[in-house]
Amino acid sequence: MDLIPVAEALQRLLEGVGPTRAERVPLAEAGGRTLASDLAATRTQPPFSASAMDGYAVRAGDLANIPCDLKVIGEAPAGHGFSGTVNSGEAVRIFTGAPLPQGADTILIQENAERAGDVMTAKQGAALGTYVRPAGLDFDKGDVLLKAGAILDYRALALAAAMNHAQVSLRRRPRVAVLATGDELVEPGEEPGPDQIVASNQYGIAALVEACGGEARRLGISRDSQTEIAGHVREALSWNADVLVTLGGASVGDHDLVQATLGNEGMELSFWRIAMRPGKPLMAGHLGPMRVLGLPGNPVSSLVCGHLFLRPLLAALLGRLEKAERQEQAILAAPLAENDRRQDYLRARLHHDEAGVLVATPFVQQDSSVLSCLAAADGLIVRAPHAPALKAGDTVAVIRF
Ligand SMILES: Nc1nc2c(c(=O)[nH]1)N[C@H]1C(S)=C(S)[C@@H](COP(=O)(O)OP(=O)(O)OC[C@H]3O[C@@H](n4cnc5c(N)ncnc54)[C@H](O)[C@@H]3O)O[C@H]1N2
Ligand code: MOO
């Protein structure tokens, strides 16, 4: 069977994936989540012309000849506007955030004024409108400032609050069940038998899911038994998982039972085996409404495939605005041999040289079981199938973690 190009696999994976349903969530619980609909301002901000500094509300025309004396006729702290009018020759003591009184058009900061009783001496002039924030400087009622699909990061969250939304309509977090498979695996903290290793991927994938706005549920480790794997698949279905991610058992060995088991459970296979390294045995399908992403067992293969496929799948389920992987150009620090038919993803350190140019240094060790290099890498060098040999100083495409 031919290996499928990465771009085609990604396109097929995302085909027909729509966003999860919307739910109303209190703003305090909305951080990091995704808006389901556009958010418009319910009020104008600032709602009135306001002072941007502590000082005196004056008429700019009164400051034509400096120094000059103005009569202080009242005070306007934030939250308590002055109700009178500032006429020529008058000033109001004002504080940052207070509404600009009627008649005044300019703020003279207190550093440029001297006060004696109810007389203020202006020591410097101020151009018309200085330190006045006009009403609507930030936004007007009805302005759509956050779009459906935007992530409510700390900045967007503050803006939603300023727009006076106590609740927001968000996409339900996609549910992702994560199943590790293999007789050789034990959970971290357990004592492995003589032929066993500690399983790692399920923790990495679950963390990736949470970081991408999903809700992860680790189903534990299934032995290499069709009955046991099937039991976990049903568990994922009864949890109403949007996605089941299986780890391992995806290749061609006698004990690689995941695909066959899923097939017996009714999974429709979308594709299997991708022209990429690591990650060749990646598999995708769906079992009723539940998408299935079968990742290879090698830890680096699982996590690189998670980065390249699971992240965009979660973005699509959340209806997020930015889905495409951003590639950058970097200068190679070491030569690379000609590539074979699989698109290569090489773990690399990235840094900026003295001239500010991005430099990529591939790790010598690229075995797909070596997690330490993945954790130390800043990104991946991407090499197209059959890319020619490169020397140090040549340009490569990179993606950052
Ligand atoms: N004859 C062939 N053999 C293999 C091929 C092939 O095309 N022909 N493909 C190789 C490639 S590429 C990969 S990648 C691996 C992936 O195979 P599986 O997805 O079936 O993974 P396993 O065999 O179950 O495990 C591979 C490796 O990873 C370890 N593993 C599994 N799960 C975990 C986990 N949760 N945490 C940590 N480590 C895990 C497992 O012990 C194995 O060492 O197949 C090649 N073989
Ligand atoms: O594709 Mo496997 O993921 O090379 O190691």
From TrEMBL:
Q: Enumerate the Pfam families for this protein.
A: MoCF_biosynth (PF00994), MoeA_C (PF03454), MoeA_N (PF03453)
Q: Which GO terms describe its cellular component?
A: cytosol
Entry-linked SUPFAM superfamilies = MoeA C-terminal domain-like, MoeA N-terminal region -like, Molybdenum cofactor biosynthesis proteins
The pathway entry for this protein reads as: Cofactor biosynthesis; molybdopterin biosynthesis
Does the keyword Transcription regulation feature in the UniProt annotation? no
Q: Which UniProt keywords apply?
A: Magnesium, Metal-binding, Molybdenum, Molybdenum cofactor biosynthesis, Transferase
Q: MoaB/Mog domain: which residues?
A: 177-316
Q: Does the keyword Metal-binding apply?
A: yes
Reactions catalysed, as given in the entry: adenylyl-molybdopterin + molybdate = Mo-molybdopterin + AMP + H(+)
Any one Gene Ontology molecular-function term assigned to this protein's record: molybdopterin molybdotransferase activity
Function noted in UniProt: Catalyzes the insertion of molybdate into adenylated molybdopterin with the concomitant release of AMP.
Q: Name the PANTHER family for this protein.
A: GEPHYRIN, MOLYBDOPTERIN BIOSYNTHESIS PROTEIN
> What name does this protein carry?
Molybdopterin molybdenumtransferase
